[in-house]
Design a protein that fits this description.
By secondary structure, the protein is mainly α. The mean pLDDT is about 85.
């Protein structure tokens, strides 16, 4: 095996690894996930006075976040990437911990802080769209 062939095979292995960690996304996935993530944060932090309504809005936010996660996992499965391993697992673990922190703080939110959560939802939705759009544009 000469040096050029070794470089070529190493590059192919890196591309395969990168595709398994961050698969190429269809163009419609980033905006859909962005809306779901933004809605999750905004809904979770609405903080109505009634305890039942607060639980309902937090549950609706959790459902939106789970829908976004399901969508990404479904895209990975359709591309033949089963399970979450390596750096992808670390990213999902970090996102999960952040979600738990958001749910706990949303349960303690009040009507006075709803604008903070709405702003966070818009900001995080834009961030999600931009970061996922990089995966949709990436040349495979």
């Amino acid at each position: 095996m000469d040096a050029e062939q070794a470089r070529s095979e190493l590059q192919q292995a890196r591309q395969s690894y990168d595709a398994s960690v961050q698969p190429r996304l269809p163009r419609w996935a980033p905006p859909v996930c962005a809306v779901l993530v933004g809605a999750a944060i905004a809904l979770a932090g609405l903080g109505p006075e009634s305890g039942w309504l607060k639980l309902l809005t937090v549950a609706a936010g959790v459902l939106c976040a789970l829908a976004a996660a399901w969508l990404i996992l479904r895209i990975r499965t359709r591309q033949g990437i089963n399970g979450v391993r390596g750096p992808a697992r670390d990213k999902w673990r970090t996102v999960g911990i952040c979600c738990v922190a958001i749910v706990v703080s949303a349960l303690a939110s009040s009507p006075n802080t709803r604008w903070i959560y709405i702003g966070l939802g818009v900001g995080l939705g834009i961030y999600t769209w931009v970061s996922l759009q990089k995966q949709a544009r990436r040349d495979g």
